[in-house]
Design goal:
There is one protein chain. The chain is mostly helical. The chain has helices at about 1-20, 25-45, 50-65, 75-85, 90-100, 110-135. Helix 1 crosses helix 2, helix 1 crosses helix 3 (about 50-65) and helix 3 (about 50-65) runs antiparallel to helix 4 (about 75-85). It is globular. The termini are far apart.
């Protein structure tokens, strides 16, 4: 499985580098997760869903290692670390629910609510920062 983790983490690194951005916002992280799940579906059709989920989580963790993926900036790795520790599992589960048609608004998990609030807070901070900068002479 280590060879597969490296292969998937290399793929995720390529996706991040192709973003050509020094920041990863929640939208980009969600998109990275979806693209990675699609990649796993294509590259590893014989794995079970839980095996694919575990492989994806391990690949994201591999990106954070000190010896691999040196092309990623420390800021990107910090954002990824926060995402992996706090949100990745909820995002994967949300994507799975949506793909199965099981996503019900009234049955959102606490993790999903926390991720949504976190996204709203980042958006609000961004808006306030832009407003503050536009008021400067």
């Amino acid at each position: 499985m280590d060879e597969n983790v490296k292969k998937v983490s290399d793929h995720i690194e390529d996706l991040i580098l192709n973003l050509a951005s020094e920041k990863l916002n929640p939208s980009k992280l969600f998109s990275l997760t979806i693209q990675s799940i699609e990649y796993l579906e294509t590259e590893y059709p014989s794995l079970t869903g839980s095996e694919k989920k575990l492989l994806l989580i391990e690949a994201f963790k591999d990106i954070l290692s000190l010896t691999n993926h040196l092309s990623l900036s420390p800021d990107i790795k910090i954002e990824l670390s926060d995402f992996v520790e706090n949100d990745l599992d909820a995002v994967i589960e949300s994507i799975i629910q949506v793909s199965k048609g099981d996503f019900k608004i009234n049955e959102i998990t606490e993790q999903q609510i926390n991720f949504f609030i976190k996204c709203l807070m980042k958006l609000l901070k961004c808006c306030l920062k832009k407003k503050h900068n536009s008021e400067r002479p």
